[in-house]
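Q: Entry one of two.
A:
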Amino acid sequence: MSTRRRRFRRPQRMLTAPARALVTDFEYALPTPWLRPVRLTSLVCFISPLSSLMKICIVGLGYVGLPAACVLAEAGHEVVGVEIRAEVVEGLNEGRIHIDEPGLHDLLQEALRNNRFQAQTAPEPAEAFILCVPTPFKEGYQPDLAYVESAARSVLPVLKEGDLVVVESTIPVGATEKVAALIRTARPELTQEKLHVAHCPERVLPGNAIREIIYNDRVVGGTTPEATERAARLYRSFSRGTVAETTASTAELAKLAENTFRDINIAYANELSMLCNECGVDTEELIRLANMHPRVNIHAPGAGVGGHCIPVDPWFIVSRFPKEASLIRIAREVNIHKEEWVVDQVLQAARRHGASQVVMAGLTYKADVDDFRESPALRIAEQLAARLSQPLIGVDPYVAKLRQERQVGFDLQSEISLQAGTLVAVLVRHRQFGAALSEIETVSGAVLMDFCRGSGQPQLMGKWASEVQA
């Protein structure tokens, strides 16, 4: 075999602006001839002979499953995506995405052109199955594994000896073994040695999902050493981060520990903001000064904690270890209480300043994404709408999607509209709000309560800077 250096040139096709924002165009020159290049937009993913291409079935095409499916397809795998919503399946097969994720449309188009991706409503035989479905909690903050169990049952008819099943959904400790037991109960011929079951928790940040799927380190744990090795081999076929191998239980707890760490730190910042409000100290200044210490890094407070992971995952630990997880439970309670505290602060300010209307700026769970799952801002707005005497307007750039997903008890707008006496409570700082928040300084009697930068203390016009944090 020749050892002559191979030079892989830049892709010739033009990239859209979202794709260019995701990756840096470059040339690679590899001296190792046994690495085979697969282009990923302008990235190149190198797959060794130990990681053969395969047919993969991904169950669940949401914020995690669809980007993962497109990345796998670009890496050369044949991907079947399973989604129970027929309209989503039809749209994907026609090249339309149903979530807002930079660069995702380009990857889907490429996968369809190369015949490496097909969406459908039922699984079909494959070599690997990846379950990417929600894991919410039910009454009493108990984990709800109904979606995971349903996804596992959906692949039962098409499983065969030698297949790999990976659960990417965030799950409580012991759930991977339960999935394996569910499969073995229904298909007893697929023993532990004949079917490989593993857990590889997703680590995706909406709005940066594609880059994180490629570059983030991953943790893989199987129900057997062989299952671990098989799953790690699959993830190394497209990941440029480290793929660490461990047990299923350790992988499960690792994901829960990551998000619980973040929840506890946010709870501290949120509690500080309430303390600062009580004693008249500027929260933003306090945190800036405290963070001057080389070993201190206090988070920014907010209106609460939202999304599909951080406000959910700690409860998975608390439910399994109720006596031992006291700090974790208290942190969750602090972040839940912060929402109630924000409601009270807005009610008091609206009465004190005689607000003509109240504007809730930002309704998604975080800035610059179209995701309303577990959004504290949305819960706060709904509570205020039921208790305010003034009109309440919810403003968010992504209200069109919100209208499709649910009905709310207040008016919705995509842009902030100001009038005399408007009280604006900033719950989520979308970039689009920059101009309007600057304009509030010129509106007579306007009041700004910014819960993204401090305690939300009511500020009359001209007190706040207009720039918007990323």
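Q: Entry two of two.
A:
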Amino acid sequence: MGGTKECHADVRVIAATNKPLEEEQKAGRFREDLYYRLNVVSIALPPLRERREDIPLLVEHLLASRQSAGVRCKIEPDALRALQNYDWPGNIRELANVLERPKSWPRRTASPWTIYPRTFSSHRWRPPPPIRVR
């Protein structure tokens, strides 16, 4: 970009949207030529609220991928049910953020942290009272 010499590149573009691009293109809100360039392979992925059975596996994966210094997270069965009953307007990003929050709560060094159902309400995440660390 900005150069005067042509340079060839072999690239793949992966794009995601929450808009129906075909409808947007037909309504003139998305460029037709760009739509056809991007629309090589389309994958329709339903929102998380329509795939509640995926939540336990996603939780397991997200917790395992975020372990640090041997500190493991334990999620109580009631908390997992609460996660499955939530509508997740932010989809997997929101779920990942919810699972990340307890790590910032005070805790003893190298002790496991636990997600309890009382820390997760139907519309807001509320941390438990702070733990005093001596």
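A: Comment on entry two: The helical segments are 21-26, 32-38, 55-65, 77-85, 91-100. Confidence is low (pLDDT under 50) at residues 108-112, 127-134.
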